[in-house]
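Contributing new records

If you add data, match the layout below exactly. Sequence lines come first and carry their own label; structure lines follow with theirs. Keep one chain per record. Anything else will be rejected by the validation script.
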Amino acid sequence: MSPRVVIVGNGHAGTTLAALLRQGGHRGEIVLFGDEANLPYHRPPLSKKFTGELAQWLRPAPFYAEQGIDLRLGDQVVSIDRTARRVHASSSCPYDVLVLATGARPRELSVSGAGVGGVVMLRTLEDARALRKHLVAERRMVIIGGGYIGLEAAAAARAQGVDVTIVEREDRVLARVASPELSAMLAAYHRERGTTIVTNAVVRRLTSRDRQVRAVVLDDGTAIPCEVVVVGVGAEPRDELAAGAGLVCERGIVVDECARTGDPAVFAIGDVTRRPVPGVDGAMRLESIPSATEQARQATAAILGLDPPSPEVPWFWSDQFDLKLKIAGVVQPGGEVERRGDPSSGRFALYHRDETGDVTAVETANAPADFMAAKSLLRSRHARSRV
């Protein structure tokens, strides 16, 4: 008999897995739990635009019933009993196969005043709707954190004429995820379009009036006036369910190349996992839609007893102003960087090479041909290394 598959988390990873299981011929029950009351939706657009319809559903509403997927919205799983093979939410739910797709949560800002009105962490559809309401009425925004979400939100807000200041504690934006060369080019692009960027700055507190934020105060005493604050200081894996069930977690649920945990009946996929990545020694946690989709394919193959899919080259994207950024491979410190194109034109590629001259990653802006060529090259090299 086909196993009963229970999926905890109805974001991109979990919803994709449910669809792929049905597409692959799975005839058993599929139960899909989601904390939010909304239908499963795309999260990346939430930081990229503040106009028009924010909700972009992953599947139309009838899809779940048509595919025999028991979608349980607004029902949070609070514990797992691996011995009895049950999860506990509003009621107990048995499983034959359990897939954890619980994602990540925004890291909170632990300073005085962070709980006042006008302070938003941009993760859910409701967060994005709340931010849009603030921006309709207010015109000064401070973004704490110069990662991709912060830069995307800054570009979207500047497009609406909002006065934007980015505060970053490192010496450059994107310090943990991009090369110094790309960081410098993007910072210059944002500044040319009116965004103020302050680096090497630590936020000490937020000041307020009538319980509404009014300024961000830095460690040197500088106060930046504002009516809206977006907190984008990173994300943490939501691995507490797995840890509470005794599964191995190391800043994320540890899985193998088939998305399996140490329990043969339990898989994990998406932003919550720490997994093997082609071209990287050891395991790492990736936060991207392509990574979530790849792991959904891995878990589908394992559950259906099919051959595992070939490992994919990790890649990422970001939209900022008129820049379509795409990165293939994992950018790591060291090595040489070859630049092609002119950053001032908004079209360029940065090729990263190791000590042997081999390409290890590419960062591109409005250069799809460079991105696809480098991605294909990396895929071929990874395939040869597995032979």
